[in-house]
Design goal:
- This protein is 30% helix and 15% strand.
- By secondary structure, the chain is α/β, with parallel strands linked by helices.
């Protein structure tokens, strides 16, 4: 009987996904606006106009039914919109709360997205596939249409549990944390997170939410607008990895919010801004800005390998709206996968969506017909390599990148034994090159996993990449490290992912994602990159 109880206890532990920061750094994340990812069968696929700021019909069930699209690209986690009840009332000057951020009662679910059973089913299906669930949460504020709302609708019903109305004075920390976001058309009453009753209610709520729906991680909206000492209590109660939105391009200021005094990690807006400066066309094409930011983040981050890397999200323009050359996106995107941190891809980036500001950067995904684009294929290959390096080495994911060389046109860096060379020249050829002195032995055979071409290392470990056929990115891996990777003709092995709680293929996906699908994607991206000029 005691043995039976022990076996039962162990089986329950094996299905509990209270994932730690250590486990999350090994994941890659696909970010979804729940209302815009997929529709149920029979729905009108032409009715969603992002300019109208209305509900389009996506739900937790439609995400669950279309997970193959995400998993087959090698992603090992999804991040979904807030699940809490939103404003329910007449249409506002800024449309409907389709995005999920206009919280009414955090303790209730958003019925627009489904039922409690639907959310549990999505969580269960993700875990069956060996994937993680990250849920967006809004703690800083609720939503109203004036500065004196009826509090009976909200989780917190006493006026003392809110800060009095005041417009934010930007640059003043106290004002940013205690005054109200939004404007007088749609107000965002600021919850008093210094109040003990609020802290108690929020920690009780988040603990129950995580446990009931088996949530693996939290993305924290507007994290810097809450007093910093609130977060260890809140995230400690949740018991999962917490990554916060700290909308700040300054590494020193933003990274104050990472660490035991605050959050496990933040979304890496400082590096995002440096990527825009370095790679966007037209743009300053300031590669030094990126190299300097890498050094700045390494110096000031408690752990750069836990930060969230991204090129797009719901609050910034789509890359294709600010940069006209697809090679600029591919080079910048590769940085996010091959450098320190957790890569995050905002839905539609793989389809080349080009919406600029909110609401146009919140397009429905279904008009794309979930096409197997060049960007989708490239992401598939990047996930496959990253997941393989995580699975086959003990330290690649925790090792920090080293910049070997930079020029106005290119940057070369290593993470572990992987050399990445990126350029900002775009598709047209230029008579420029970049060399890097690596720790590789002379004549070592390496393979560019993007095109499967081999590069021999020169004297003193030198490697040179030239751009006479266009600005194609290069990722070089020593041939002897690629065994069992499924890349560039090497066999694909099934391994147990280090630190995860299920058996996965080296592409990061469980059984439904077949090696044949990946092989087809890899051949396709190699052919496209070669055609682009390499």
């Amino acid at each position: 009987m005691h043995l039976l109880k022990l076996i039962l206890s162990l089986s329950l532990l094996s299905t509990a996904y209270a994932a730690t920061a250590e486990q999350w750094r090994k994941r890659s994340i696909y970010q979804i606006i729940t209302d815009r990812f997929a529709l149920p069968d029979g729905a009108d696929l032409t009715a969603c106009d992002p300019a109208k700021q209305s509900f389009c019909g996506g739900t937790w069930n439609t995400i669950k039914d279309n997970l193959d699209y995400i998993q087959n690209a090698g992603f090992t986690a999804i991040w979904i919109s807030p699940v809490s009840q939103n404003y329910e009332g007449p249409r506002t000057p800024y449309g409907d709360p389709y995005h999920g951020y206009w919280i009414q009662d955090a303790s209730k679910l958003n019925s627009r997205f489904g039922t409690a059973d639907d959310l549990k089913a999505l969580s269960d299906e993700l875990h069956r596939r060996g994937m993680y669930l990250m849920v967006d949460v809004v703690v800083n504020n609720v939503m109203a249409l004036d500065t004196n709302p009826d509090l009976s609708k909200y989780m917190f019903k006493d006026q003392s549990q809110y800060h009095s109305y005041c417009p934010i004075q930007w640059g003043n920390t106290s004002s940013e944390q205690n005054c109200w976001l939004g404007d007088l058309n749609v107000t965002l009453p600021d919850v008093n997170t210094q109040d003990p009753s609020v802290v108690s209610a929020y920690t009780t709520w988040i603990k129950a939410l995580v446990q009931e729906f088996n949530i693996d991680g939290l993305r924290i909206d507007a994290a810097k607008h809450v007093n910093m000492d609130f977060w260890p209590k809140f995230c400690g109660a949740a018991g999962v990895y917490c990554i916060g939105e700290v909308f700040d391009a300054d590494a020193g200021q933003a990274l104050e919010w990472q660490g035991k005094q605050a959050l496990d990690a933040i979304l890496n807006y400082p590096v995002y801004n440096a990527l825009v400066q370095a790679f966007s066309i037209p743009g300053p094409q300031n590669m030094s800005a990126l190299a300097n930011m890498i050094a700045d983040v390494k110096q000031k981050s408690a752990d750069p390998t836990l930060l969230g890397n991204f090129l797009e999200d719901q609050d910034v323009p789509r890359w294709a709206s600010i940069s006209v050359d697809p090679q600029s996106m591919w080079n910048a995107m590769i940085f996010n996968f091959m450098s320190d941190g957790i890569p995050i891809v905002y839905y539609g980036q793989e389809q080349g969506f080009n919406g600029n500001a909110d609401p146009m950067n919140r397009e429905p995904l279904w008009p794309s017909k979930y096409a197997n684009t060049t960007s989708y294929q490239l992401i598939t290959k990047l996930n496959q390599l990253r997941n393989f390096m995580i699975n086959s080495t003990d330290d690649w994911v925790t090792s920090q990148i080293q910049v070997l060389n930079q020029s106005p046109e290119a940057i070369a860096f290593m993470k572990g034994k992987v050399l990445t060379v990126l350029t900002n020249i775009g598709s047209p050829p230029q008579n420029v090159s970049i060399s890097a002195h690596t720790p590789f032995e002379n004549s070592l055979s390496t393979t560019d996993i993007l095109t499967c071409r081999q590069y021999a290392v020169g004297s003193n470990g030198s490697v040179e990449v030239e751009y006479s056929k266009g600005g194609v990115p290069v990722i070089l891996v020593p041939d002897d490290m690629l065994d069992n990777s499924g890349l560039c003709g090497h066999a694909l092995a099934t391994v147990t992912e280090k630190g995860a709680q299920s058996t996965v293929n080296t592409n990061g996906a469980s059984a439904p994602a077949t090696p044949f699908a990946f092989a087809a994607a890899l051949l396709g991206v190699a052919a496209t990159l070669l055609a682009a000029g390499l």
